[in-house]
Amino acid sequence: MSRLVVLTTPEFAPGYRLAGAATIAVTSPEDARDELLELVDARGEKGVIAVHEPYHAGLDRKLRGRFDETSEPLVVPLPSGGGAESAGERRGRLLQMLWQAVGYEITFDAEGGTQ
Length: 115
What we know:
Helix 1 (13-18) links the parallel strand 1 (4-8) and strand 2 (22-25). The chain is α/β, with parallel strands linked by helices. A four-stranded parallel β-sheet has the order 2-1-3-4, with helices on both faces. The mean pLDDT is 81. The chain is globular. It has helices at residues 13-18, 29-42, 53-57, 61-68, 87-102; strands at residues 4-8, 22-25, 48-52, 74-78. The protein folds into two domains: 4-82, ATPase, V1 complex, subunit F (Rossmann fold, 3-Layer(aba) Sandwich); 84-115, no CATH class.
């Protein structure tokens, strides 16, 4: 069964749980790595695993490469929502996540229609 699992900070975890996502609170990139490997290797998770972006960035290159090469599970960085990221950078990040998830680039015009 496919599902969404979110690996995020203890502060953000309640919000994701209220939204209905299976959520695991982690406190460091090392904790995220351990939980990610438990989900995939021990439990055989097949859905989407969204990892808090600073923790995803802290995963070693080899592990990130392992998940970049497969679509099951789909492991994606979850934007942390902080910082001075511009609207264009946020849009680019979301487009990249959509492309990775569905394998096709979807763009939107100024009125919100697809192109």
